[in-house]
């Protein structure tokens, strides 16, 4: 694995990864260029989320809606990238950046975990755009996400990128997923579809024996989202790195 992925593989284990950048409620908002700049300056890796805008650009934002972060109505996919860039995140001067702008800012300074927010049943357009962008990015990067079919898309078309499958307890109802599918995913049966290089597991599932079995076979495990030192001490024996927020890991 190290030979195949080089620096990205090494940086998977250290340093810790700042969840949506290094942000806080009083300063730089989550998934903003300011938060990413602060993470770079502090020497952390960076996790960020991407969606497609109305004009087919990969933009960095967590929610499908812009409401929580901007106070405006509508979904990310309802606006062009230019419109999104002009919105103000949490009353600051920070807008919703594109993935291109974000990677240009980060450069080689940090390992970037790009989480694709691809809805089930809609694999293809977002993956293609992210693929096009990553081809021209020379810094360390990996692709993560919950949708195993998104991973399968990359495995077939862009096998040279490091990929991590996100998973959790799948306890809540999910659009496009039956109860049987959620139970299957909770058992990590989607690993056979995704064929990931590492797992990114929620804190309540990172100690699952199935996760331990994959780790023993050589598949690294990253824990998310760690919000205080005590939580990190609890999960540290079960994983190789953490995605954190709310404190300095």
Structure description:
This protein is of the alpha/beta class. The protein has helices spanning 2-5, 7-11, 33-42, 67-70, 81-86, 99-106, 125-135, 148-157, 179-186, 191-194, 209-216, 229-235; strands at residues 17-19, 45-52, 58-60, 112-116, 141-145, 162-167, 198-202, 221-226, 241-244. 42% of the residues are buried. An 8-stranded parallel beta barrel has the order 1-2-4-5-6-7-8-9, surrounded by 5 helices. It starts with a helix and ends in a 5-residue tail after the last strand.
Offer a quick outline of the entry.
The chain contains twelve helices and nine strands. The protein is an alpha/beta fold and 249 residues long.
Task: Detail the topology: elements first, then pairings.
Layout: H1 2-5, H2 7-11, E1 17-19, H3 33-42, E2 45-52, E3 58-60, H4 67-70, H5 81-86, H6 99-106, E4 112-116, H7 125-135, E5 141-145, H8 148-157, E6 162-167, H9 179-186, H10 191-194, E7 198-202, H11 209-216, E8 221-226, H12 229-235, E9 241-244
Parallel strand pairs: 1-2, 1-9, 2-4, 4-5, 5-6, 6-7, 7-8, 8-9
Antiparallel strand pairs: 2-3
Give me the count of strands: 9
Q: Strand order of the main beta sheet, please?
A: 1-2-4-5-6-7-8-9
* Beta-strand fraction estimate: 15-25%
Helix segment tally: 12
The third-level CATH topology is TIM Barrel
Low-confidence stretches: none
Oligomer: single chain
Helix content: 25-40%
The second-level CATH architecture is: Alpha-Beta Barrel
Regarding CATH, which class?
Alpha Beta
Radius of gyration equals 17 Å
């Amino acid at each position: 694995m190290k030979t195949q992925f080089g620096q990205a593989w090494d940086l998977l284990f250290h340093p810790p990864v700042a969840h949506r950048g290094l942000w806080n409620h009083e300063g730089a908002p989550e998934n903003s260029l300011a938060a990413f700049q602060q993470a770079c300056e502090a020497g952390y890796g960076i996790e960020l989320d991407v969606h497609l805008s109305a004009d087919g650009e990969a933009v960095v934002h967590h929610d499908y809606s812009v409401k929580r972060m901007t106070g405006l109505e509508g979904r990310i996919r309802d606006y062009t990238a230019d419109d999104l860039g002009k919105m103000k995140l949490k009353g600051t001067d920070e807008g919703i950046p594109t993935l291109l702008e974000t990677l240009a800012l980060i450069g080689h300074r940090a390992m970037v975990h790009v989480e694709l927010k691809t809805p089930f049943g809609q694999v293809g357009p977002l993956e293609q755009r992210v693929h096009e962008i990553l081809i021209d990015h020379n810094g360390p990067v990996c692709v993560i996400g919950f949708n195993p079919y998104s991973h399968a898309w990359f495995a077939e078309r862009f096998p040279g990128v490091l990929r991590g499958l996100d998973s959790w307890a799948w306890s809540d109802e999910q659009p496009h997923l039956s109860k049987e599918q959620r139970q299957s995913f909770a058992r990590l049966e989607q690993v056979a579809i995704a064929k990931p290089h590492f797992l990114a597991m929620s804190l309540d599932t990172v100690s699952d024996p199935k996760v331990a079995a994959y780790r023993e076979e050589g598949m690294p495990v990253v824990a998310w989202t760690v919000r205080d030192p005590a939580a990190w001490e609890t999960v540290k024996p079960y994983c190789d790195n953490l995605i954190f927020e709310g404190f300095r890991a």
